[in-house]
Amino acid sequence: MCRHTSDNDCRGSAPALPRFEKPPIKGDSRQIDFKYDRIESIEFGNPPDESVKETLEQFRTKTLPMIRSIASGCSLKVFVDSSHPHNLCDIIFDGLKECTGLSDIDLSNYGEKCQQFIRRQIEFAVWKEPLRERRLQVTVHDSAEITLFCH
């Protein structure tokens, strides 16, 4: 069923899809309910085993947009060792660079994309939401243990 106001707007187009699908949680019969469920912490690290079958492209195009859409007031932790592709970190930082829902960032210095991501998050905290008090804590390990607090 089309959601447009007139049938002329929908000629030849596919039916409108709901904004969010409810993907099942692996190994659990429950599903994510986007109306009530929120992400409190996003953690990227080394997978415990090789059971993760998602490609970097699937991660970039499907997983990160879903995470970004429901992340609100959550923390982000990124700890990826050198045995994983460097572009994984770039994909994470590119995919979450417009995420305004982060309140705490804890990561190592993963290069230029990481630094751009941190600058962008500080801009969101300081300039994009001046009427609301937004506290952002950024901790960068391996860079003289820098911790920034933005109010």
Automatic annotation (TrEMBL):
**Where are the compositionally biased (Basic and acidic residues) regions?**
1-10, 19-28
Q: Which domain of life is it from?
A: Eukaryota
- Locate the region Disordered: 1-28
Output this protein's name. Uncharacterized protein
Organism encoding this protein: Steinernema hermaphroditum
